[in-house]
């Protein structure tokens, strides 16, 4: 299995998607939040590219649903939830549909269209993602969402954690320096992930917005044993059951 790491959606090339499995990383916070929501029993997460399309979907949606997401790290007007991963619980959110739009993470999911399979990865579920990918066997592109068009080390750490997990399971071949850098960064920082995330570009945004507690949640390596899979057009994230 070959592994490539792409540091920003705008650097994606057709060969990064064709016959590839893509894993999208937005560790602070979108893919962590999606993973936590699915672990709490949320039915599905519908992905939107703009506030207006999400709000319009909310107006016509039949059934239990919540608008969630952020702009400038805070909850947009008219939304039910922001983008904090620790708000979900089974009692309140089981079988609910989330309508989600964020600045970077949902953009990266939309940019992954055309891949053979798309999964949602983070530090919280790195072990679970490596487990799924190890069984799949297809060549990989680990896509980092970045922050407002800039490379973000928190996403690279997420990709590095999955590479580290895969390497302990199956033979892998790192296809690029970015893949090598991701693995090296994770191995160098694995004992101080919370500090590393705080110092990252995304971490600065989260701290500036007064949401520092989210960083500890997002840095909690392998704390959630579920994986989201992206299906259909427009994309919907659901719990991966090993089959679909
Ligand atoms: C995003 O998707 O843009 C990030 O998750 C931003 C955030 O959570 O504030």
What does this 3D model show about the protein?
With about 240 residues, this protein is of the alpha/beta class. The protein has a ten-stranded mixed sheet with strand order 4-5-3-10-9-6-2-7-1-8, with helices on both faces. β9 and β10 form a beta hairpin. Helices cover about 40% and strands about 20% of the residues. The two termini are about 20 Å apart. D-malate (MLT) binds next to loops.
Q: Largest sheet, order of strands side by side?
A: 4-5-3-10-9-6-2-7-1-8
Number of helices: 11
Mean pLDDT over the full residue set: 97
Helix and strand pattern? EHEHEHEHEHEHEHEHHHHEE
**Which ligands does the model contain, each kind named once?**
D-malate
Strand percent estimate = 15-25%
Q: Which spans have pLDDT < 50 for at least 5 consecutive residues?
A: none
> Structural class of the secondary structure composition?
alpha/beta
Fill in the keyword field for this structure.
single chain, 10 strands, 18% strand
What's a concise summary of this model?
This protein has 11 helices and 10 strands. The chain is of the alpha/beta class and 244 residues long.
Question: How would the blueprint of this fold be written?
Answer:
Blueprint (H helix, E strand, L loop, with lengths): L1 E5 L7 H4 L3 E5 L4 H10 L4 E4 L3 H10 L4 E5 L20 H4 L3 E5 L3 H7 L5 E5 L4 H11 L3 E5 L8 H15 L5 E2 L2 H13 L3 H7 L1 H8 L4 H7 L8 E4 L4 E4 L5
Parallel strand pairs: 1-7, 1-8, 2-6, 2-7, 3-5, 4-5
Antiparallel strand pairs: 3-10, 6-9, 9-10
Helix pairs in contact: 6-7, 7-8, 9-11
The structure holds D-malate.
């Amino acid at each position: 299995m070959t592994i490539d790491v792409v540091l920003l959606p705008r650097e994606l090339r057709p060969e990064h998607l064709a016959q590839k499995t893509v894993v999208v990383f937005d560790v602070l916070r979108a893919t962590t939040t999606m993973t936590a929501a699915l672990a709490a029993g949320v039915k599905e997460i519908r992905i939107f590219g703009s506030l207006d399309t999400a709000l319009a979907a909310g107006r016509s949606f039949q059934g239990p649903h919540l608008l969630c997401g952020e702009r400038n790290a805070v909850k947009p007007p008219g939304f039910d939830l922001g983008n904090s991963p620790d708000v979900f619980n089974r009692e309140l959110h089981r079988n609910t549909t989330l309508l989600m739009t964020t600045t970077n993470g949902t953009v990266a999911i939309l940019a992954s269209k055309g891949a053979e399979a798309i999964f949602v990865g983070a530090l919280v579920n790195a072990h679970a993602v490596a487990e799924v990918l190890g069984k799949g066997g297809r060549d990989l592109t680990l896509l980092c969402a970045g922050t407002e068009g800039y490379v973000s080390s928190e996403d690279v750490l997420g990709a590095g954690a999955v590479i580290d997990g895969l390497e302990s399971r199956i033979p892998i071949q790192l296809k690029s320096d970015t893949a090598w850098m991701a693995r090296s960064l994770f191995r160098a920082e694995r004992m101080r992930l919370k500090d590393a995330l705080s110092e990252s570009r995304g971490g600065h945004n989260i701290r500036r917005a007064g949401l520092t507690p989210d960083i500890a949640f997002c840095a909690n390596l392998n704390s959630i044993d579920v994986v989201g899979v992206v299906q259909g057009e427009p994309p919907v994230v659901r719990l991966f059951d090993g089959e679909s």
